[in-house]
Target: Protein LURP-one-related 6
Amino acid sequence: MAATRADGMPVISKLYCSSSQAVLVVRKRPHVVSGGGFVVTDCSQKVVFRVDGCGVIGSEGELKLRDSSGEALLLIRRKGGMVQALSIHRKWKGYTFDYEGSQKPVFRLKEPNYSCLVRNNAIRISTEPRRSNKDWDFEIKGYFPDRSCSIVDHLGKIVAQIGVNEEVNQLMANKDLYHVAVNPGVDQVFIFGVIAVLDYIYGESTRC
Model:
């Protein structure tokens, strides 16, 4: 079983960890009709998650991941300010909500300034609390716009793979539809939170 962290604990919730591999489908929503973002469905085309970007929320650099009923599970914000503007990295923070509605930080994602142009630049994620001796816990391998990349843990184990099968690739060259294979025991909310940030970084459906 592929674990999300060294201790095998989920990043956000064990309720969204499957005992078997889950293959989910991401379908981008058009900005004109629904404000952008994307919907995640299972093999039965049942909605599992929905991600709203700035076209829905109305705030640039902010994303929300919701469950099938519309309840917010994850809020993701890009850090701003003068210090951030001068930094060589852009940083994102993901938050969950407790029972009182307070925000609790659960992960940070760091991207190089030129990650959209240089394919070999690493995009790395650290979780809170930390479970690795490195300064990161997960890393993106591959290139997201090509729909050919993986999320790996600090031990080099693949926790999720993003791809497009050959039939879909022939029908939709713009990659509006793709699948994500999430390994057993891996927190699916965390995985799609990371994918939401990647979508925004590369100027896709969650970005205005």
Notes: The radius of gyration is 16 Å. Residues 1-7, 81-86 have pLDDT under 50 and may be disordered. The CA atoms of residues 138 and 156 lie 9 Å apart. Helices lie at 31-34, 54-57, 82-86, 166-171, 188-201.
